[in-house]
From TrEMBL:
Protein name: Lipoprotein
Annotated PANTHER family: BLL3101 PROTEIN (PTHR36509)
Residue ranges constituting the DUF1254 domain according to the UniProt record: 98-228
InterPro entries (UniProt xref): DUF1214, DUF1214_C_sf, DUF1254, DUF1254_sf
Top-level taxonomic group: Bacteria
Length: 493
């Protein structure tokens, strides 16, 4: 009995030892396989001869997904030429890099630098070059007034939240680039790190359309500023933005937005743009592919010309149609659309480019909810020769903790001058008339709806197509979960 037990024990030990030896013997091979699997695969070889058709394929793809980044890059080059803070064309805030220019009232209707402006807020603009210097942003105490500063990178994604909805404190904020290392001076409320050296700051401060509020906002906006870190001394700098110099602006031939992305320059600029926008997870191969092809094109003029030609086609066939709101967005009732990832696009290339083409520099959804419309209640294109109404039933105004507005744009998404000099209606308008049942009807037409209705009249461009945008600044939960959506744009009977 004891002999059997001993043999069983020895057998068990042998099996265990054999398994251990086998496991040990297999370890190097398994380890080698693990190393082999985890090693990154080789990327494109830029010395290989490639076909013209392949170069066209890569060029077409790159034109679409990199279009917004090149757009911002060229705006940086434009701001770089500003001699001092001023107003480009007399209407657009325009300042040297790492400095701010601020409006002192609503934006005037003549600007063509940024599509879909609004006349609800007083705007500012600062283009940051964080490879040159960190910057300091001044935030005054706005009290109960709505405000938000947009801070976005070269991709048009927000990298920080600064505004009323974040309960941000007044004071000094410091913005640094992705590789900055240094000492934070005393008195800085918070350091905000951008993922790219190129970034921008766009303050938006709500203003009611009354002489009293236009005067009351001046002491607040004079304390808004952006400047290089070297100028920070812990004290608020003050500036009367009403005294800004006005710079001339060349006329636009087609009435559309300034053309910021050009096929003939695109592939020369792309390497610098991508160097400033490190690839997001999963983008490494995309970057390697396009950089290899652009490198090949630098050595082959015919290949480069084919890529430029393909970019011109892609611009017309892929990007241009995205100016029209009806071609993109999250569908809502009555042909309205919206977006859920504004300024948080990540690798959603379609939405990033659609927004950059049609209304670049949108706020994040918790800051502003945007609703877009090109069509009437029957699905027909909005037409300035027709008359329309938008009626908010009692208790059904846009659900907001800030303010709301409905704005009219022409087919290029800009204002069209009208006799009232009025381009939107909403919270800021104190003369709106409500029905006896508590409803609010807005009249959208080129001619007056009658003296008794002019307070609710939103003029549209006569004899031309137009679009609408409803903004809900600091929306509440009903906007986020879509339990509230805008009413139909009804044709007048």
């Amino acid at each position: 009995m004891r002999r059997t037990s001993t043999l069983a024990t020895l057998a068990t030990l042998a099996v265990s030892l054999g398994s251990a030896l086998l496991f040990s013997a297999l370890q190097p091979a398994a380890h080698a396989r693990a190393v082999e699997v985890s090693a990154p695969p080789p990327g494109p070889d830029s010395s290989v001869r490639i076909s013209t058709e392949y170069a066209r394929l890569v060029a077409r793809d790159a034109w679409f997904w990199a279009w917004p980044m090149v757009n911002v890059f060229n705006r940086r080059l434009a701001f770089q030429r500003a001699p001092e803070p001023g107003l480009f064309g007399g209407v657009i805030p325009f300042a040297p890099l790492n400095r701010l220019a601020m409006l002192s009232d609503y934006i005037e209707p003549g600007q063509r630098w940024v599509a879909c402006p609004n006349q609800d807020v007083v705007y500012g603009a600062s283009m940051l070059a964080l490879d040159l210097s960190p910057v300091v942003i001044q935030v005054p105490d706005f009290g109960k007034r709505f405000w938000v500063y947009q801070l976005a990178d070269i991709r048009t994604d927000n990298f920080a939240g600064l505004g009323a909805m974040y309960a941000s404190k007044p004071g000094f904020y410091m913005v640094v680039g992705p590789n900055w290392k240094g000492t934070v001076p005393r008195g800085i409320v918070k350091v905000l790190r951008a993922p790219s050296a190129t970034a921008f700051v766009v303050p938006r401060i709500f203003q009611e359309d009354t002489p009293e509020d236009k005067a009351a906002i001046q002491p607040l906006i004079r304390d808004i500023d952006v400047y290089p870190l070297a100028e920070y001394d812990g004290t608020m700098k003050h500036r009367d933005w009403r005294t800004l110099r006005r710079f001339a602006q060349p006329a636009q031939a087609d009435g559309g937005e300034t053309r910021w992305v050009r096929p003939e320059q695109f592939f020369d600029q792309l390497p610098a743009v991508l160097a400033d926008a490190p690839p997001l997870p999963g983008e490494q191969s995309r970057y390697a592919q396009v950089l290899a092809v652009t490198a090949a094109a630098r050595k082959d003029p015919a290949l480069k010309q084919a890529m430029i030609d393909e970019a011109q086609k892609a611009d017309k066939e892929l990007v241009d149609p995205l100016l029209q709101f009806r071609n993109w967005g999250v569908p809502l009732p009555h042909d309205w659309t919206t977006l859920d990832n504004g300024a948080r696009f990540g690798t959603d290339y379609f939405m990033r480019t659609a927004v950059a083409k049609s209304n670049i520099l949108v706020n994040a959804p918790n800051e502003t909810r945007y609703y877009y419309q090109d069509l009437d209640a029957s699905g027909v294109r909005l037409d300035g020769d027709k008359r329309y109404t938008v009626t908010f039933e009692n208790g059904q105004l846009p659900p907001t903790r800030g303010f709301w507005s409905l704005t009219v744009y022409d087919e290029h998404h800009f204002f069209v001058p009208n006799t009232l000099d009025r381009y939107s209606l909403g919270t800021r308008n104190k003369a709106l008339k409500y029905g006896s049942d508590g409803s609010l009807t807005l009249y959208l037409q080129a001619d007056s709806p009658g003296a008794d209705k002019e307070s609710n009249w939103l003029p549209v461009p006569k004899g031309a197509p137009f679009s609408l945008m409803l903004r809900d600044y600091w929306p509440d939960a009903r906007a986020a979960n879509r339990s509230w959506t805008p009413p139909a744009v009804a044709g007048a009977q």
